[in-house]
Structures are given as C-alpha cells and as structure tokens.
Amino acid sequence: MRPRTTGEVDLDTSVFRLDGVTKRYGDLVALDNATLDAGENEYISFLGPSGSGKTTLLRVIAGFEAPEAGRVFFNGKDITNLPAHERGIGFVFQNFALFPHLSVIQNVSFGLTHGKSGLNAAEIERRSLEMIEIVGLSGMQGRGVDQISGGQRQRVALARTLTMQPKLVLLDEPLGALDANLRGRMRNELRAIRERLGVTFVHVTGSETEALAMGDRVVVLDRGRIIQIGTPGEVYGSPASPDVAHFLNRFNLFEGKLAKGTFTGPFGAVPAAHAVRSDRDIYAVRYDRMQAVDPSAPVSGPAIRARFVASEYLGSSVMNFFEAGDGHVIEMEHHLSLGAPQTFEPRQDYLLTWNPEQAIVFGREVA
Ligand SMILES: Nc1ncnc2c1ncn2[C@@H]1O[C@H](COP(=O)(O)OP(=O)(O)OP(=O)(O)O)[C@@H](O)[C@H]1O
Prior knowledge:
alpha+beta, Rossmann fold, CATH 2.40.50.140, five-stranded antiparallel sheet, 22 strands, 34% strand, binds adenosine-5'-triphosphate, nucleotide-binding, ATP-binding, ABC_transporter-like_CS, transport
C-alpha cells in the first residue's frame, strides 16, 4: 500500500490501531480517549509540547504501559493485553540503550542471537551485516560502541531494531541528540529505509520542523488529547485550533473579537468570512505572509505598527522580529528564494501588513 495522503482513517488496511485509549498516572490523564490508526509503510509523526503524552502513546503501543480504557490492535489482532516482548514491535529509545561492552555487530545481532529466531550463526551475521550496510555503517561492525560517534550509535540502535524485521518501528525523539547536520542526514536515511524495507514508522518529536518534514501524517497532541491528524500540508495549511497553530511555530497569533463576520484586533477591523470554530477568538497570520512598509506608506488592508528589533539568518530564509506597542513580538519570514531580503533600521517603526484572505481566523461565533 502506498502511504496515504490525507488524514482520513482507513480501518481495513491499518497496521496498528488505537481505539479510545486512556492512560492515567494517579489523577493525571496522560492520554485521553486517543483513537488513531496507521497504514502499511506509513511514516507518522507525533507532535506536541513537552508533557502532552507523546511518549506515553508510544509506550502504550509498544506494551510498556497498560491503558485503563481502550484497545490496541496490531496486524488485525487485539494486543492490548499482550506483553511487550511478544508484540513484534520495534522500539528505538531516546537514549539508544546499547550494550556498551559489545561491538557494533554484537549489538545489532543481539535480538537474533538471544531470541527465538531459529537462524544459524551465518544467517544471523548475514542479516546483521545487511542492516549495518542499510544504516550506513559498513566497515564499522567490529568497533566497540564506545568507539563511535553519537550519530553512529543512533544508527546502531536503529539497525538492532530493524534486524528483527518488525512491521512497525516506534522512534522516541531519535534525532534529538544529534547536531543539525546529522539530523538532516538521518532524516533522509530513515526515509530511504522506510522505502526499502516497507516498515511503518511512528516518530515522536518536539520539533515542528521535523514532524512536518518526516511525516506522511502528523498527529498533534495537547494535554493527552489528539487534537489534529492530517498530512503536513493539511496541518500546516489548516491548523485545527489556535493551539495547533501555536505549536507549528509558523504563525503570528493575535487576540481580538470575532462578531458578525468581522475580526477586530490590534490591527483594526478586518472582514473574516470563513472562521474556524474554536473556544477563543484568534487571528493567525503566517510568518511568511507578512510584509513591512514605511509607516507613512498607504495601506489598504489590516496593518499594525511595530518596531524592528532584530533579524536572524536561517540559511534559506531571514526571520525579522518586530515589537508592537503592547509588547507583542511579531515575526516576519522572508524566503531568500524570493530575492534579497529587505533591510530594516534598528528601533525604527514600520507598518506590518498582509493579505487578509491568507489569514486563518478562529472564533466562537462562526457563520
Ligand atoms: N511514569 C509516570 N508517572 C507519572 N506521571 C507520568 C509518568 N510518565 C509520564 N507522566 C506524565 O504524563 C504526562 C505525559 O508524559 P509524556 O512523557 O507522555 O509526555 P511527552 O509529550 O512525551 O513529553 P516530552 O516531550 O517532554 O518527552 C506528563 O504530564 C508526565 O509528567
């Protein structure tokens, strides 16, 4: 099956499925009625702030935690009560959890050597070397895992999981310990491995960039609840709530009041014909949809006066920071592919404006 391209759930082809899973720690509801499925050869990213329940969700799928309510299915079977080691689900931990006194190949082959694989030594070696090659560590099989870099250890942890040929691999912040360069390379390799082995990956990350870059679908969590499931394009283009827009870290959010199809905020009153229902009135404008003009320039749409504070060069874009009179920091991104960036005078005021049709309006009163 090809990875799916929409956020819709297809129960017949799912590799795993969670039905109404709730997990409590004492009074704390770590997972609240979570329902989710994943298809074959799909890459799913969990995105959410710290403490939102991402790791708990992974641990419930893996079988390290038992839910108080709900069911977990894998390959069409109810595995809610099956112990973790009988599930056949791979798990790569945040801290890699390698055996420090063993070599790369001894770590990679550990599960086959010590499990019930029934393979002979030559077959175990062949399969382990193949995985070492797939994760890009050929030639390093004899080294101790204390003689390789953090990124290489991460690959060993992945190869060790993949030798068991699981259909589902759970990755808990697998790239968190790596520098930006290595993270980029590992992302590409994870994609290539997914293509080559047809494994479904579920990847937990606190980084919105990583979630959007990696996932065929992104699952957004907040306080134990799944608040949106969709392709990166759907989540980015149509965040389901102000909280999702906030986690994506790509939108300026303005408070105000939505009434009778008009949003009134610190930038004036703007027509808002298509609002998304929400418990708060919030106006969201993407960082890369804002423009800055001289305060004396005529502006027809919404505009807010703000002082230029600083800019940051991000490689493919420049992020400019402004501060409005009420202290609200407004971010404006300029993609360098669109031409040279504007330069701004420190501590000077500008008018920030945008096309209101490109804003996303959330409100209690929706027509
Ligand atoms: N063993 C535990 N006992 C009690 N509370 C726990 C336990 N594990 C997690 N929690 C709580 O459950 C909530 C969800 O935690 P979880 O680790 O799933 O969050 P997370 O989204 O993975 O966070 P992070 O990004 O910081 O790793 C948090 O409030 C956390 O403090």
